[in-house]
TrEMBL record:
One of its GO terms (biological process) is carbohydrate metabolic process. It comes from Flavobacterium microcysteis. Zn(2+) binds at H105, E122, H180. The active site is at R200. Its cofactor is Zn(2+). Binds 1 zinc ion per subunit. This is Phosphohexomutase.
Length: 321
């Protein structure tokens, strides 16, 4: 039996977070149930959080089941060869009503050794930012374990970290080992390796409703942190109806695609393509069938979908391997 090929969208996996808010509903119309929803996992095969297809012939089916049945058709020849039946990326929307913890993610080698997991290289696209909203990304200047620990102990860690005021459309690429935090008042689209490994090093001394503070991972983080200064901000062109490269790394490529009208796309059968809609709405036309999408939708086009049309007025992130 062959795969019925069509664009796949998924039921959002919503995550309560101490720092979360309500913008996932007000901005994207996600079906959140609380005032502190921090994340919508749009496309995931993290164990325990595997995306379920929302519409079409495969409605209700887990993405991992479909991949194991049709690995090459979904993932593409190159991706299947490299990752087997693993879906290698995780896509999220994040609403930071309050500051996230200062944290770091391990690289592939450390994550494999400690957690039998991928590392967590990631990128952020800022979709909305309140005035003067900031992120923390890396050190202001080259540091060391000793200097870092001293500042952590004295609660002066922020004094040695790089803080950047952000605005809509800003992009940051965070290689593993980059110490970071998303600040209050920011909504981002996050693209990352399939991993949920986070080492939290400072959480602003806050406690939950029961007076408990969240677990910290100070010892685990020591060997994961890159103490050199890193350049995380990315600039990119914004030519209409064209895939403008934003991030190209060994784990994924992300292009910025401002859609105005109609374009034809032709791809080889090497990788799946994901579109995250940042603004506006758009249509995908394939084999005389048309599907409609809007801001906040994340759409997986199987690798077997090699020729299709995009039409609309929209800002898309186009992601593939």
């Amino acid at each position: 039996m062959s795969l019925h090929i069509y664009p796949l969208v998924f039921e959002p996996i919503l995550k309560e977070r101490i720092w979360g808010g309500t913008k996932l509903k007000t901005v994207f119309d996600k079906p959140i149930q609380s005032e502190t929803t921090g994340e919508s996992w749009e496309l995931s095969t993290v164990p325990g959080d595997i995306s379920r297809i929302a519409v079409g012939e495969y409605k209700g089916k887990l993405l991992s089941e479909l991949i194991s049945q049709y690995p090459e058709e979904i993932l593409g020849k190159t991706v299947h060869r490299k990752f087997g039946t693993e879906f290698p990326l995780l896509f999220k929307f994040i609403d930071a009503k309050d500051d996230l913890s200062i944290q770091v993610h391990p690289n592939d080698e450390l994550a494999k050794k400690r957690h039998n997991s991928f590392g967590k290289t990631e990128m952020w696209y800022v979709m909305q930012a309140d005035e003067n909203a900031k992120i923390v990304v890396g050190f202001k200047e080259k540091s060391s374990k000793e200097k870092y620990l001293k500042n952590l102990e004295n609660k002066t860690l922020l004094s040695i970290l790089e803080e950047i005021t952000v605005k809509k459309g800003d992009v940051f690429f965070l290689e593993t080992g980059t110490i970071h935090a998303i600040g209050a008042g920011i909504v981002i689209a996050e693209i990352q390796q399939t991993s949920d490994i986070t080492y939290r090093v400072y959480d602003w001394d806050r406690v939950d409703a029961e007076g408990k503070s969240r677990e910290l991972h100070i010892d685990l983080a020591l060997d994961a942190i890159n103490y050199d200064r890193t350049d995380t901000k990315r600039t990119y062109t914004q030519e209409e109806n064209k895939s403008n490269p934003v991030v190209i790394c060994p784990y994924f490529t992300t292009d910025y695609l401002p859609l105005n009208g109609k374009i034809e796309i032709k791809k080889q059968h090497e990788s799946f393509t994901v579109y995250m809609c940042m603004e506006g709405d758009f249509k995908v036309k394939y084999n005389e069938t048309v599907w409609d999408y809007k801001k906040g939708d994340t759409v997986l086009l199987p690798a077997a979908m090699q020729e299709y049309e995009l039409e609309g007025q929209a800002v898309l992130l186009e992601i593939y391997i």
